[in-house]
Description:
Elements: H1 5-10, H2 25-68, H3 71-89, H4 93-96, H5 102-121, E1 124-127, E2 139-146, E3 155-160, E4 162-165, E5 168-171, E6 173-179
Parallel strand pairs: 2-6
Antiparallel strand pairs: 1-4, 3-6, 4-5
Helix pairs in contact: 3-5
Amino acid sequence: MSDTSGNAESQPPENENAQGSAVSPDAARAEALEAELARLKDHLLRALADAENTRKRAQRDREDAGKYAITAFARDLLDFGDNFHRALAAIPQDIRADQRIAGVMAGIESMEKELARAFEKHGITKIMPLDQPFDANFHEVMFEAPVPGKPAGIIIEVIEPGYVIRDRLLRPARVGVAKGEPSGHAGPHRIDTEA
């Protein structure tokens, strides 16, 4: 005869936990439901956060569309404004002083001022960085020249002004930059001269 009662005592019943207390089927089900509830709550919170982020992104895109809708049109007008300014500047002073065309000159000059006011009204600002340090975010180097008394990287000539619309660059200012004195080491600002 074998003693089966000893084996039965060493194995805990199926509905007992490690401490020896019995786990009811309802408690196990409640535990599973709580875990499922926590998982679904986390999923819901993530979905709500994603929806809020999407709403904010759409709002920001709508605002940007309103602010920058005229960007392409403004870029086209910049060339017109530059050419208009060059044409006006090309008229010699002796012709400007002629009383026969004084009215025409006044009209042309007021047209240029009106164009500048329209740019300003729509958040378009001219960049004239003469005697400022070169900034690759807003300037385009057209040439370098050694200039006594000017440190390397300082803008010595503005060939064509740049423009920004609010905080975005429309066109970089095309500039000439002072070239540093030849030395054996590169300074903190190195300008590529082999472009």
